[in-house]
Amino acid sequence: MNLPHDIPASGHYDYFDPITKVQCSATTFDGLIARVGQVRSAMGAVAGLSLREELEKALCQNSPEDCSEVDMTVPRKLKLTLTDVIHGTKVLASFFASGSIPVPREESERRAQICKACEFNVRFPTPCTGVCGELLSIALRVSGNQGTQYDRSLHSCTICHCYNAAQIWIPLENLEKGVTDDMKKQFNHVESCWKKF
After folding, report:
1. What is the pTM of this model?
2. What is the distance, to the nearest Å, from the Cα of residue 93 to the centroid of all Cα atoms in its chain?
3. Are residues 23 and 118 in the same domain?
């Protein structure tokens, strides 16, 4: 799959957003994602289920010289936006229905310890103006109002964009419903990962 370089040859990315009808520019790809997300949010438009993927596709179609072939089965350390994390977490929570039973505390502690040390446990932008409260609420809901001793060191998974403090409580059969085949291959590349399907 072709993906945009972090910094384009021209020195900036330009994107005309078909949803807001606004021309957005940034000097980096991650900056463009943030900018388009901010404009959509300010105009009351939905950022989209996969804003990153939407922009990747559009930029590589319009400016192939700013893109390179990437093996999507190998995990990449990404700078996640808050939109990425919120979406990833909502997707995983949607497959964990109300009344579902979280995994036992011992298993969540084991998973949390693995995520804490993982290179793909990445921070996302803060302060998050109330949105962090929404993420914590999801984590509490799926955990049955529990936590682990590692919660302060849990951020977001760069592979699935999920908030780790929430996903460590969800049974694998529920998590599997929210991941793509490429994500599964990436998890399998991370030797110590507990999330193998």
Report:
1. 0.64
2. 13
3. no
